[in-house]
Specification:
155 residues; Aminopeptidase; single chain; 7-stranded mixed beta sheet; alpha+beta; 42% strand
């Protein structure tokens, strides 16, 4: 598996993964995804194998008075590549990107029903700090996770 940063030529394949991984109304719209990827505060990592995209991850930093905080927008892996460590590797890369941007912590929302994603985050030291009811849709709560980043070390 090869891991690299996003380039604009990746968008069509990246958005096709978004459509596979999330059904409406849970997926980003095309315009929202473009705006997010093009943000100067966002970093997007691509996982690919044999010239085919296997997944991607996006992190966005924002400055706060207590230091920069990064938000994991999404980590997505196509179904046939799941269970092979792709999500794990993408998470390590966005953690490193957040750290390089000066972030002191990462946070995210995850569907309370997404056991695989919850297991990934908890394995990497993320701690559940709350729950937001109907975050995704009526009856679909999000758990809020956070991880403090150690400075000066790579994930």
């Amino acid at each position: 598996m090869n891991y690299r940063l996003y380039t604009p030529q990746d968008f069509a394949e990246l958005y096709a993964i978004e459509e596979v991984c999330f059904q409406s109304p849970f997926r980003f719209g095309r315009r929202a995804m473009v705006r997010l990827i093009q943000s100067p505060r966002a970093t997007t990592w691509i996982a690919e194998e044999d010239g085919r995209m296997a997944g991607f991850a996006m992190v966005e930093s924002s400055g706060k008075s207590s230091g920069t905080i990064a938000y994991i927008q999404t980590i997505e892996v196509i179904p046939e590549q799941r269970g092979r460590g792709v999500g794990h590797q993408l998470l390590l890369r966005i953690e490193d990107s957040a750290r390089a941007a000066g972030s002191v912590a990462l946070w995210l929302h995850v569907d309370a029903q997404n056991a695989g994603a919850i297991r990934l985050y908890e394995t990497h030291g993320y701690r559940c700090e709350g729950r937001e009811e109907e975050f995704y849709a009526p009856g679909r709560a999000a758990l809020i996770y956070r991880k403090l980043l150690e400075t000066g070390t790579a994930g």
